């Protein structure tokens, strides 16, 4: 009798504990879900803004190429068809989203010195009021904003990963060039950058579906 | 507190050291150039340096020109003195530390014993509120400059201005852009080089001055939040003939999507309307460049506008609306009936003329090309059933006009009892409208509405009526002014409306309400109304009806024209003015004449009339007139009255003369016996006159007196001396008096009078008395003959031209003196007859004699004297007959 009673008490105690644990588990899951939802919201917003800015930069780089060609005189089409070494690769490397995002970021960083070089070269070739110079400046600023956005996005998505750095060390700029080479170089840089932006845009669209949804 | 005091002392020490190095001052104030907050207390310290001439007890403070009370001082040491002043006003001012000391050194170095500081007063800045920023489109992109504004809070002073700095931080790379501006201001623009699309911005503003610093709330938003683009460009509206109720709106994005993803909003209205219809936002909140408007009215001009904003919810500002894009929808066949109505005018006895007029259908859906009309008159089969087409030449409709064009369709003559049935349809280029039927049947006597009221409210005419007992299909509200007619239709269930036409203020409208019973026109009810009343434009011209009277005038005036009234006439105020004042009389509006009464005669009056409405009055022109001096007929009445009076007097005189002719005759033409007929002629030769006359005289007249006076001798004795003078007097008396006018005639008159009074006696004894009188009068008459003047001794006895007998003259010559004297004295002496015993023997009183002479020779007293002696005499004569007449009779008889 007593043993049965003791069993009964123990069983009731265990049931209470189980109920409590279940409740705690539910609360934990719910809070995690809320956090995930909140993070997902930020993820979506950040990625959306990044994607929009990428498209903008892509569009502006295309406009810039037109402006560039228009300001380079005859044979401007030819300039853009010549290949030039030491230009950043427009393709995005990496297999996983963090790697891809890091690749985007490092590539962006790699283009900035080239932009600066092209701007410096075109200062000598254009008048100070040339729209090309303004557009180059604008593209440079936008690209830095894009880089900043991607960096913030990366840090928010992957707070425990280190900030990516350019893989191959400091960007290697071409040696001194003549005017033709400068014109060719500028066009190739812009063309490559535009292609890169196109790739970034595609990758961000993919990441949107992968990164932000996966974390929900 | 202690540490603060120590710090202050250290600061003073440092400052003193600096000043010592710079100059030779003996007083120094800390702090130097302070900025003080208004509404707080400020404490300064004055320190004595490099001298022992003065101590802190000698110091005092001045704020501008006012010495600070000692109560606000606090002595810190022998050489330092604090002062605390309350900063109340905004004006910056000087605070001085100085001293007074009677010493040579102080007197010679007074400039070293004063020091002042400039107190700059201000307010602590407050936190800017409600920060908002905007970035507008420039060209094809958003401007890199962002403008922010905020609500500036708190006051500022010129001495301590507040600087505002706007900060914009790009959160992607933490780069901060800023711009500053000195206050007072509440907006700043900052240049961001390139507008940071899709970047997150942190914007805030800092207000800072010498008294502090305050930072606004941070505005952290994506850059799109601040974007305001241009309105959509190239807005175009397209109509399609197949869709008469639809229009397609096309536009271009003001900015490409990569910069700003836009949504749109469309609104449209009819050209004549001012009310916009908004397309639901859910239909257009997309990045679109075209939209089809539906359910529009055919053949109607529509104005369309489009605007845009950032697609993100609650982000961005709506752009301005695009410019008006106007397009007309295609034509469609009329969807409503033409608005058929009539104008009725009297066309003679038992006849009327009806003109049918028509407005285009409300939903004409195009240009009406013609109206088809058929008129069916009862009892006139010739006009029944045939359709007539009336072409109208409408120009392109002006959609700005409010009043529809009225088409006059047909005019017919109708007898009073005839009814007419009219059908009209309107036709445009697409098709015909439904029929409109109107029945004019006076015999039916359809009931009118009841209690129709028209009132003006907010520039419109509002109508109310009580519907008749029968079911009304619709009402026609008609208003007519100056020959212009317009009308509108109202639903049969309504009991009031507002006139929607172009109702002008100050114009009188004759408003009528017709109930329509299944096309049959009921009896109308009319009322006049103004939507707004004003003061009349002219005053009535007043005139006089006829000529003014002596105390009244009839004024008449005409009603002022309807166009000049500008309102219902409430009254006329008549003013009339003369030199003494002005009078006013108000008469009702339906009066056009008035009679002024109680006017002064022979007075000029100015009159004018003010005509009044509820909104004011207008003074009519002046008119002047002068009242008459005499009323009409007054002069004639006076003349007639005077004439009548004169005539009356004349008549009365004539009557008097007629009836009293004997008396007059006797008075004016006393009957003098004709000596020719006298019998004396018969006897004069036979009787000696001289012997008889005195005796006869004495016997006849003075027979009684003969006792005393008839003695000629006594008379001669008495008057011998004065006789010539008396004779002269007689003569003058006779000249001055007429016949019977002399006092000397009193005796003859008395004789006549006596004979009148004693008529019977006169009748019986006429000859005797007259004779006797003639004898007595002979003494006075003689003097009347001028020819007798030289003959003083001869007295003519009569004024008659009748020749006197010689014997009479002689006799008169003798009798004259005696008889006269006797007759005059007789009354006076008569009493002596009775008083014989009391008189002296002569019987003569000299005093009485004198009086008698005065009576004789004073013609002025003659009248008065004449009466008394006459009375006296008459008394004598009344009493005398017994004594004198009888002897006379006795004296006559012998003749």
Give an overview of the whole structure.
The complex is a heterodimer of chains A (216) and B (895). By secondary structure, chain A is mostly helical. Helix content of chain A is 77%, strand content 0%. In chain A, helix 1 runs antiparallel to helix 4 (131-157). Chain B is flat. In chain B, helix 8 packs parallel to helix 13 (806-834), helix 11 (746-757) packs across helix 15 and helix 12 (759-781) packs across helix 13 (806-834). The model of chain B is unreliable at 689-895 (pLDDT under 50). The chains are: A mainly alpha (216), B alpha+beta (895). At the A-B interface, helix 1 and helix 4 of A face loops of B.
List keywords for this structure.
heterodimer; A: 216 residues; mainly alpha; 5 helices; 77% helix; elongated; B: 895 residues; alpha+beta; five-stranded mixed sheet; 49 strands; flat; disordered C terminus
Blueprint of the fold:
The complex is a heterodimer of chains A (216) and B (895).
Chain A: H1 2-71, H2 76-79, H3 97-125, H4 131-157, H5 179-214
Helix pairs in contact in A: 1-4, 1-5, 3-4, 3-5
Chain B: H1 2-22, E1 27-30, E2 35-37, E3 41-48, E4 59-63, E5 66-67, E6 73-77, E7 80-86, E8 93-99, H2 104-108, E9 114-122, E10 129-138, E11 141-142, E12 145-151, E13 163-170, E14 175-182, E15 187-191, E16 200-209, E17 212-215, E18 219-222, E19 227-228, E20 233-240, E21 243-252, E22 262-270, E23 277-278, H3 281-284, E24 290-293, E25 301-310, E26 325-328, E27 339-348, E28 351-359, E29 368-377, E30 387-391, E31 406-415, E32 420-428, E33 436-440, E34 450-457, E35 460-466, E36 474-481, E37 484-491, E38 496-498, E39 509-517, E40 520-521, E41 525-529, E42 542-544, E43 553-557, H4 562-565, E44 571-578, E45 581-588, E46 593-596, E47 604-613, E48 616-619, E49 623-626, H5 634-659, H6 661-668, H7 680-683, H8 689-700, H9 712-719, H10 723-736, H11 746-757, H12 759-781, H13 806-834, H14 846-857, H15 862-892
């Amino acid at each position: 009798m007593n043993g049965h009673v003791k069993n009964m008490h123990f069983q009731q105690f265990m049931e209470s504990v189980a109920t409590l644990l279940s409740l705690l588990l539910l609360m934990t899951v719910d809070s995690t879900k809320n956090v995930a939802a909140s993070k997902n919201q930020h993820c979506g917003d950040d990625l959306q803004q990044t994607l929009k800015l990428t498209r903008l930069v892509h569009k502006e780089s295309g406009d810039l190429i037109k402006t560039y060609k228009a300001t380079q005189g005859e044979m401007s089409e030819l300039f853009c068809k010549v290949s030039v070494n030491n230009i950043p690769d427009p393709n995005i490397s990496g297999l996983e989203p963090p790697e891809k995002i890091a690749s985007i970021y490092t590539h962006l960083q790699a283009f900035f010195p080239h932009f600066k070089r092209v701007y410096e070269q075109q200062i000598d070739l254009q008048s100070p009021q040339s729209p090309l110079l303004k557009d180059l400046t604008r593209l440079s600023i936008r690209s830095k904003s894009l880089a900043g956005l991607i960096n913030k996005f990366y840090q928010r998505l992957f707070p425990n990963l280190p900030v990516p750095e350019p893989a191959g060390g400091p960007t290697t700029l071409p040696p001194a060039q003549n005017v033709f080479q400068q014109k060719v170089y500028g066009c190739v840089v812009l063309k490559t950058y535009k292609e890169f932006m196109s790739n970034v845009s595609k990758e961000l669209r993919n990441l949107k579906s992968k990164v932000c949804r996966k974390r929900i | 507190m202690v540490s603060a005091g120590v710090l202050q002392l250290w600061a003073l020490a440092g400052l003193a050291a600096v000043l010592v190095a710079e100059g030779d001052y003996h007083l120094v104030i800390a702090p130097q150039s302070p900025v003080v907050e208004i509404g707080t207390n400020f404490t300064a310290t004055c320190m004595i340096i490099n001298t022992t001439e003065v101590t802190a007890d000698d110091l005092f403070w001045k704020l501008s020109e006012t010495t600070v009370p000692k109560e606000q001082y606090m002595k810190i040491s022998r050489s330092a003195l604090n002062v605390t002043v309350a900063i109340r006003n905004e004006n910056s001012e000087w605070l001085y530390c100085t001293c007074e000391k009677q010493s040579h050194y102080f007197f010679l170095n007074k400039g070293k014993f004063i020091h002042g500081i400039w107190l700059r007063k201000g307010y602590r800045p407050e936190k800017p509120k409600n920060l908002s920023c905007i970035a507008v489109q420039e060209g094809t992109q958003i401007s890199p400059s962002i403008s922010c504004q905020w609500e500036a809070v708190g006051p500022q002073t010129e001495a301590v201005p507040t600087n505002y700095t706007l900060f914009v931080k790009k959160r992607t790379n933490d780069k901060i852009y800023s711009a500053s501006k000195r206050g007072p201001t509440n907006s700043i623009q900052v240049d961001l080089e390139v507008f940071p699309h899709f970047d997150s911005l942190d914007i805030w503003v800092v207000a800072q001055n010498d008294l502090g610093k305050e930072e606004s709330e941070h505005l952290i938003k994506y850059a799109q939040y601040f974007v305001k683009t241009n309105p959509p460009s190239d807005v175009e509206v397209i109509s399609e003939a197949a869709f008469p109720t639809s229009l397609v709106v096309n536009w271009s994005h003001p900015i490409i999507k990569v910069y700003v993803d836009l949504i749109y909003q469309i609104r449209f209205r009819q050209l004549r309307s001012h009310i916009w219809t908004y397309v639901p936002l859910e239909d257009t909140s997309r990045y679109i460049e075209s939209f089809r408007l539906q359910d529009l009215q055919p053949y109607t001009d529509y104005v369309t506008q489009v605007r845009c904003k950032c697609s993100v919810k609650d982000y961005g500002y709506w752009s301005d609306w695009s410019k008006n894009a106007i397009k007309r929808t295609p034509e469609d066949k009329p969807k409503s009936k033409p608005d058929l109505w009539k104008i009725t005018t009297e066309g003679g006895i038992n006849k009327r003329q009806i003109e049918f007029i028509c407005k285009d259908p409300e939903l004409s859906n195009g240009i009406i090309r013609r109206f088809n009309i058929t008129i069916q008159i009862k009892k006139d089969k010739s006009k029944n059933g045939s359709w007539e087409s009336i072409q109208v030449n409408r120009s392109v409709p002006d959609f700005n006009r409010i009043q529809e064009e009225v088409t006059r369709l047909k005019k017919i003559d109708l007898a009073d009892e005839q009814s007419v049935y009219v059908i009209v349809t309107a036709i445009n280029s697409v098709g015909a409208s439904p029929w409109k039927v109107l029945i004019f049947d006076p015999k039916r006597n359809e009931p009118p509405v009841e209690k129709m009221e028209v009132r003006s409210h907010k520039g419109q005419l509002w109508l109310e009526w009580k519907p008749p007992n029968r079911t009304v299909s619709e009402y026609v509200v008609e208003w007519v002014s100056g020959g212009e007619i317009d009308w509108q239709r109202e639903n049969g269930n309504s009991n009031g409306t507002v006139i929607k036409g172009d109702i002008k203020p100050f114009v009188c409208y004759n408003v009528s309400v017709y109930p329509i019973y299944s096309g049959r026109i009921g009896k109308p009810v009319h009322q006049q109304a103004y939507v707004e009343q004003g003061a009349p434009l002219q005053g009535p011209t007043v005139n006089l009806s006829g000529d003014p009277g002596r105390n009244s005038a009839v004024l008449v005036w005409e009603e002022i024209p309807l166009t000049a009234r500008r309102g219902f006439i409430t009254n006329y105020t008549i003013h009339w003015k003369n030199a003494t004042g002005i009078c006013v009389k108000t008469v009702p509006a339906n009066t056009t004449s008035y009679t002024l009464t109680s006017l002064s005669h022979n007075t000029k009056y100015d009159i004018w009339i003010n005509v009044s409405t509820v909104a004011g009055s207008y003074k009519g022109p002046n008119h002047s007139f002068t009242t008459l001096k005499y009323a009409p007929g007054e002069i004639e009445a006076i003349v007639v009255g005077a004439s009548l009076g004169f005539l009356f007097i004349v008549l009365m005189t004539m009557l008097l003369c007629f009836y009293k002719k004997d008396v007059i005759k006797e008075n004016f033409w006393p009957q003098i016996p004709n000596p020719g007929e006298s019998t004396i002629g018969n006897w004069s030769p036979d009787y000696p006159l001289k012997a008889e006359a005195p005796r006869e005289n004495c016997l006849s007249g003075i027979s009684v007196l003969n006792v005393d006076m008839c003695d000629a001798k006594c008379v001669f004795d008495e008057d011998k001396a004065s006789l010539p003078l008396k004779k002269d007097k007689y003569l003058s008396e006779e000249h001055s008096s007429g016949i019977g006018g002399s006092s000397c005639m009193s005796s003859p008159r008395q004789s006549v009078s006596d004979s009148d009074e004693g008529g019977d006696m006169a009748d019986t004894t006429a000859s005797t008395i007259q004779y006797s009188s003639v004898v007595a009068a002979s003494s006075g008459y003689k003097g009347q003959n001028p020819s007798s003047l030289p003959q003083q001794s001869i007295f003519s006895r009569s004024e008659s031209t009748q020749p006197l007998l010689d014997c009479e003259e002689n006799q008169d010559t003798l009798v004259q003196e005696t008889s006269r004297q006797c007759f005059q004295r007789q009354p006076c002496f008569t009493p002596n007859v009775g008083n014989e015993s009391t008189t002296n023997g002569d019987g003569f009183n000299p005093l009485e004699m004198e009086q008698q002479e005065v009576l004789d020779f004073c013609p002025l007293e003659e009248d008065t004297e004449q009466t008394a002696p006459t009375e006296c005499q008459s008394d004598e004569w009344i009493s005398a007959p017994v004594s004198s007449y009888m002897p006379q009779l006795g004296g006559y008889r012998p003749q």
